Amino acid sequence: MRSHTSVFVGNLLFTAVCCSAAPFFLLLGYSAWSDYPGWDWPAMLLAFGLVGTVMIPVLAFTTTRQEFPRITRRNRVKGVEDVNHRYPDDTFVMWAPRSEHRSAQAQLMRADVLEASLARYHPDGESTFTTHYGNYTPDEFTPLVRLRLRVHDAEETDGTGEFEVTGEWRVPSLCLSAITAGRLVVLVDEPAAPGDRRTFTPDWPRSALLAGTRTCRVIDLEGRTTDVTRRVGRQLQQMRISREVGGVVMNGDTIDLRRLDPHTAARYAALADQDRAFPEERAPVSEPGEEARRLADQLPGERPAFGSVGRRWSRRGGVLARGRFLEMRGRTTFQDHGPVLDTVLRIQPADGAPPFDAARRLTVPMDYLTVLHRTKEIVLVVSPNGVSYDVDWARSSLLAGVTAATVIAPDGEEIPVTGRPDLIWALMNLLASQGISITSPVLDLRKRRLGAVAGMAMRVVGR
After folding, report:
1. What is the value of pTM for the model shown?
2. End-to-end CA gap in the chain
3. Counting Cβ atoms within 10 Å, is residue 118 exposed (0-12), middle (13-18) or buried (19+)?
4. Cα Rg for the chain, rounded, in angstroms?
5. Which residues contact residue 180 at a Cβ distance below 8 angstroms, ignoring those fewer than 6 apart?
6. Please, which residues have CB within 8 angstroms of residue 162's CB and are 6 or more apart in sequence?
7. How far is residue 230's CA from residue 212's CA, in Å, rounded to a whole number?
8. Other CB atoms within 10 Å distance of the CB of residue 235
9. Which end of the chain is less enclosed by CB atoms within 10 A, N or C?
10. Whether the Cβ atoms of residue 202 and residue 184 lie closer than 8 Å to each other
11. Can you list the alpha helix ranges (DSSP code H) found in 87-175?
């Protein structure tokens, strides 16, 4: 487990080397000031050297804060001005980059993802922070993914309008989970001339909504709220209405019909009446055949693990806590392993205190973003004094199911625990309380150093 101090010292040394000219100019200006009193250039050297020298620790601190995802009291969301962040526990709001603009005549259709593979992702940022001003989806940091899709024609209901298409598309990292879930929204342009082919363009923000990554609620004209997340048929019809009228604004994850113009509100209300008369079943969290679509193993991120434990942290009573993302907003800054996002998290303190919301700018690993439709949970390492929280991406990725988690019993039996987050969470807490580090997704209880916890771990597993 990295120390905040060690990260700061490393950044301080690196910044000092990069800005080594500043102290040199400071000394040169100071010595020249006594030899050439009243001249302008010694004063300029002094000013330049002083500003540059002061900036060394400032830049080191800023870089460390970006690199080290620590949440403190000043990150807490509070006050009347932040009331919009007080979402229900199951809310997830996402502001993703807009997709490529298509003609108004393009048809909006559903597409099932049959196969997916990474075609290209080769950023050259060397894990430093790279900003593309005004560009939320630079090619360098936007994976190119090869997809085989089954598109459902909106005009055909008997299955005859289904057809397959294969191609490569740039996928904003915030929307990668739509591929894993297996449901996309595509815009289909008819051929411009005889002999031409139809053009297919995935609408990535709407795909994240259809996949259930972003939640969606509708408040009808009587003030009743309905959760329409993963109700695919109704959402597709709502999207078509929204596109026809030039867009419908969502307040967080909610569409309030009382704030729409009467004609649009009436069309949405008709959908709600139809849904009450003939309720639609929710689509599965992930469509069948997910293994053919998984991109987590092909994209960068923190290696999932039961987690490392610092001796000093463990001796002083450090604990783990769980949190959940409520909001993610795309930015124009990136690292090789993921985008830098403005996030809002709800953190449940380990001591049973009431949960609180925190706003924090974080680099979110790409492999974690591929399973965002399934979970928004993360694991945080709590300081012994309980005042700061550090996001542990290795534990978070394992809890989210980025890779398979396995427990090997003392008798050699392999017990898969993937998809059982509460069980994995209990094992993580057991290991942390005993000061045991497991830096892989496999907990092998046959190892000698785990003998003291093998019995307790097996009881947690239920064997």
Report:
1. 0.85
2. 31
3. middle
4. 26
5. 286, 290, 293, 294, 295, 296, 370, 371, 373, 374
6. 150, 151, 152, 153, 156
7. 5
8. 24
9. C
10. yes
11. none
The string over 148-187, giving b where at least 16 C-beta atoms fall within 10 Å of a residue's C-beta and e elsewhere, is bbebbeeeeeeeeeeeeeeeebbbbbbbbbbbbbbbbbbb
Q: How far is CA 383 from the centre of its chain?
A: 24
Q: Residue 276's closest CA among 240, 310, 307, 234?
A: 234
Cβ atoms of 201 and 187 closer than 8 Å: yes
**Residue 313 β-bridge partners:** none
Helix 21-35 to helix 40-67 angle (10° resolution) is 160
Name 345's bridge partners: 325, 358
Provide the Cα torsion 290, 295, 296, 297; round to 10°.
110
What is the DSSP secondary-structure string of 31-77? HHHHHSTT-HHHHHHHHHHHHHHHHHHHHHHHHHHHHS-EE-GGGB-
Longest dimension (CA), the chain: 92
pLDDT in tens, 427-462: 999 999 999 999 999 999 999 999 999 999 999 998
Dump pLDDT digits (tens) for 26-61: 676 666 666 656 556 566 766 666 776 777 777 666
329-356 residue pLDDT tens: 999 999 999 999 999 999 999 888 999 9
Is 226 in contact with 218 (CB distance < 8 Å)?
yes
- Residue 289 region by backbone torsions, left for phi larger than 0, else alpha for psi between -120 and 50, else beta: left
C-alpha–C-alpha distance, residues 422 and 298, integer Å: 27
Q: Which long-range contacts (CB under 8 A, 24 or more apart) does 129-136 make?
A: 129/63, 129/66, 129/333, 129/334, 129/335, 129/340, 130/333, 130/334, 130/335, 131/332, 131/333, 131/334, 132/332, 132/333, 132/334, 133/332, 134/332, 135/332, 136/97, 136/172, 136/330, 136/331, 136/332
Q: Which helix (H) or strand (E) holds 18?
A: helix 4-18
| Token pair of 299 as six digits | 């994209």
**Total length of the chain:** 463
Q: What's the rounded Cα separation, in Å, for the pair 439 and 72?
A: 26
Residue labelled with tokens 């199951």: 90
Q: How far apart are CA 240 and CA 264, in angstroms?
A: 11
- Cα distances (Å, whole numbers) of residue 382 to 15, 71, 325, 375, 428: 29, 10, 17, 21, 14
